Amino acid sequence: MNGTQKEPEPGKSKALLQFLAGGSAGLLELLLLHPLDVVKTRIQLQGVHANPEQLQYSGVMDCISKIYHYEGVSGFWKGIVPPICSETPKRACKFVIYEQFKPLFLFGAPQPTALTHAMAGALAGTLECAILNPFEVVKITQQAYRKDSLNTLNVAGKIIRNDGFGIKGLYRGITALMLRNAIFHFAYFGLYQGLKDELPAYEDRFAEFLRRGAIGFFASIVSSVFSVTFDVAKSRIQGPQPIKGTIKYKWTAPTIWTIYTEEGFRALFKGLSVKMMRAGPGGAILMLAYEYGFEYLTIKYC
User: Fold this and answer.
1) Domains along the chain with CATH numbers
2) Would you call 16 exposed, middle or buried from its count of C-beta atoms within 10 A (0-12, 13-18, 19+)?
């Protein structure tokens, strides 16, 4: 695979292969790891003023136990439809943007550096928010409630009727989402490509597979630590408010400050353990599926 990969012609054919590989990688990662996203969201939504529609969870295992006890296995897959609808095109577009815009961030270097990958990744992660945000709002609304398995279209319709399409409705929390994505993807792509270039590659295909997977795992874990505070703020803004009819969490900075003053510094990292449980394998799966998928498509069709 090293040194024998056939490069597709630049332009539409290469972008198409990146689109297909990125979309497939995103869908695979979602299907395997969505239950952990449900657990993470439930924990992050907890504040000092409990929403009556939500149980309180003392930790990750307590959350998993209560979801299973009260909602059954299907409870772990709440909110799966919006990500399925958004993940394939979103990840596909992200990888195309990431690959196509890397030349803009060479800064005079003959080859892409770790900074090149970080900047291109941050740009791609930020731009995808225009597609992602409405699906995130619907997904978190579905994940927040334990009593019913809420229909996706009904939830979306209710949000639009009550709050509209703008920053009070389907695009609420977009600033927090953009900040989360920019920070996460800057660290993730920068670390992954930087370490992959620095650490020696293996001739053995399985050993090389494990090397790339380990780097993706590590890069995603570190990126989660840097971005989790904005993920908590996003969940609070996009999810059900603690007091019905009153908007407590509206903007990113005030939300972070409110969480800090009411719940302490540790609350800014709520859900980090389960986020890392999801992000580590997710980061490995995503890059492995994308890179090997792209290589396969290149060999087969170019």
Assistant:
1) 12-301 (1.50.40.10)
2) middle
Supply angle C-alpha 35, 177, 154, rounded to 5: 60
Q: How far apart are CA 224 and CA 228, in angstroms?
A: 6
Query: How far apart are alpha carbons 289 and 213 in whole angstroms?
Result: 10
What share of the chain has pLDDT > 70, as a percent?
A: 91
Q: Region 135-144: what's the mean pLDDT?
A: 82
pTM: 0.80
How far is the first Cα of the chain from the last one, in angstroms, to the nearest whole number? 15
* Runs of H (alpha helix) within the chain: 12-44, 60-71, 81-100, 114-127, 129-144, 152-163, 174-198, 205-238, 252-263, 272-301
122 near 186, Cβ under 8 Å?
yes
**pLDDT tens for residues 32-69?**
888 888 888 788 777 655 555 567 787 788 888 988 88
Q: pLDDT, tens digit, for every residue of 146-169?
A: 555 567 788 888 888 888 888 888
Distance, CA of 210 to CA of 220 (rounded, Å):
15
Residue 7 CB neighbours (<10 A): 8
CA dist 138 and 155 (Å) reads: 6
Q: Provide the b/e sequence for 269-301 (b: ≥16 CB within 10 Å).
A: ebbbbbbbbbbbbbbbbbbbbbbebbbebbeee
**164, HSE (Cβ side, Cα atoms, 13 Å):** 3
